[in-house]
């Protein structure tokens, strides 16, 4: 069996895979309506919110695009805080949809600094909308500043904070209501133990008010349409029904395990990966204290080839790691530890990493 140690898509439990094989149903019938009501309640529990949450048939990028087209007007001044590739994706989306972008970038491995964000906002009082990635999957860093940042953003009239929590929510705590996050995104193929194909968007009153006043054209991703359809147990367009069956089952498993237990398991296993990598003489990309509990980015030792290590792990150990993206290509190995993951997956992953490094000539 392959040990899929990438940061999504992640392995799914057998019961979840089997749930996806159920016979098709009418997506406009009562069974779907009951399932949509059930999963929406379950997703809200994981989001720790009483806000509306809509489920889109899309990958995580679809949820990001939905956030941009619903919340940002053409020509609007916005701030995107980026600590890596996925923050940069928000910048691209903002530019494509005609926003006036202020960029605030932090070097790979660093978390965002709330004081620098506050300074950037002070320089441009016209900015109302701020985008940030909670867990940057490309660098293995979790931004710890969300509650403070929400206060900074809400201190301005009409301020709205949009958070990509695609690779954190469901694996680590994201307290949507307690932290007062206006829009929060996640995706089924990460910690949710479900196949790719569904994405989630939570919206509070501030976000709905901003969306209602926003003239940006939108159709597939018009979130108000999704909310209105959901009230009658439907989706505006044909949903990814089989993935939805899987989500229904995975939520049952997640809620039975309990959120605190899930978060504790992720923290424990992530620590095991970090300690294991350090014990091999390896260095992490993330600065100390902001390491992600869902993905660890390990620096490729000087003189070695990251692609060769990854190919060796697949060939010799049936273990799949992810490489670096963009400027980090060849420079890091990303070890995923989110969703349906146990001690034995991590132990085998660490053995595969150690063995592959030895085979490509690494000496600590
Ligand atoms: C933090 C983050 N944002 C956005 C995305 C994009 O999601 P998708 O690849 O499902 O479109 C990912 C996927 O890896 C991610 O990890």
Provide an overview of this structure:
- By secondary structure, the chain is of the alpha/beta class.
- It has two domains: 3-8 and 258-359, Aspartate Aminotransferase, domain 1 (Alpha-Beta Complex); 15-255, Type I PLP-dependent aspartate aminotransferase-like (Major domain) (Aspartate Aminotransferase, domain 2, 3-Layer(aba) Sandwich).
- It has twelve helices and 13 strands.
- The protein has helices at residues 14-19, 30-47, 60-71, 85-96, 114-123, 146-154, 205-212, 223-231, 241-257, 259-279, 306-317, 343-359, and strands spanning 3-5, 52-57, 77-82, 100-105, 129-133, 135-136, 141-142, 160-164, 183-187, 198-203, 295-299, 319-323, 332-336.
- The strands form three sheets. Strands 2-10-9-8-5-3-4 form a seven-stranded mixed sheet, sandwiched between helices. A four-stranded mixed sheet has the order 1-12-13-11, with helices on both faces.
- Strand 3 (77-82), helix 4 (85-96) and strand 4 form a beta-alpha-beta unit.
- Helix 3 crosses helix 4 (85-96) and helix 11 (306-317) packs across helix 12 (343-359).
- The chain is globular, with a radius of gyration of 20 Å.
- The two termini are 29 Å apart.
- The mean pLDDT is 98.
- The structure holds pyridoxal-5'-phosphate.
- Pyridoxal-5'-phosphate binds next to helix 3.
């Amino acid at each position: 069996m392959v040990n899929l140690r990438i940061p999504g898509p992640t392995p799914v439990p057998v019961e979840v895979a089997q749930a996806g094989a159920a016979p098709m149903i009418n997506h406009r019938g009562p069974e779907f309506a009951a399932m949509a009501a059930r999963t929406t309640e379950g997703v809200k529990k994981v989001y720790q919110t009483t806000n509306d949450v809509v489920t889109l048939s899309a990958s995580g990028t679809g949820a990001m695009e939905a956030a941009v087209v619903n919340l940002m007007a053409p020509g609007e001044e916005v701030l995107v805080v980026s600590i890596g590739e996925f923050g940069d994706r928000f910048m691209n989306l903002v530019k494509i949809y005609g926003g006036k972008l202020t960029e605030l970038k932090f070097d790979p491995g660093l978390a965002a600094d709330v004081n620098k964000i506050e300074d950037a906002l002070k320089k441009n009082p016209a900015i109302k909308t701020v985008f940030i990635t909670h867990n940057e999957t490309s660098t293995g860093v979790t931004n710890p500043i969300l509650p403070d940042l929400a206060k900074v953003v809400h201190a301005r009239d009409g301020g709205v904070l949009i958070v990509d929590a695609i690779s954190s929510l469901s694996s680590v705590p994201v307290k949507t209501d307690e932290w007062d996050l206006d829009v929060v995104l996640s995706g089924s193929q990460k910690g949710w133990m479900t196949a790719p194909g569904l994405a989630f968007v939570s919206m509070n009153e501030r976000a709905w008010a901003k969306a209602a006043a926003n003239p940006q054209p939108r159709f597939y991703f018009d979130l108000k349409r999704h909310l209105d359809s959901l009230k009658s147990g439907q989706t505006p367009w044909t949903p990814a029904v089989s993935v939805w069956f899987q989500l229904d089952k995975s939520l049952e498993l997640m809620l039975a395990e309990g959120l605190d237990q899930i978060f504790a398991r992720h923290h424990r296993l992530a620590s095991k990966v970090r300690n294991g990598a350090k014990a091999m003489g390896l260095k992490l990309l993330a600065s100390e204290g902001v390491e992600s509990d869902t993905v660890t980015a390990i620096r490729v030792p000087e003189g070695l080839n990251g692609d060769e290590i990854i190919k060796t792990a697949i060939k010799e150990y049936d273990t799949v790691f992810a490489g670096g993206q963009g400027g980090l290509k060849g420079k890091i190995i990303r070890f995923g530890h989110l969703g349906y993951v146990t001690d034995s997956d991590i132990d085998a992953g660490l053995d595969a990493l150690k063995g592959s490094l030895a085979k490509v000539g690494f000496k600590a």
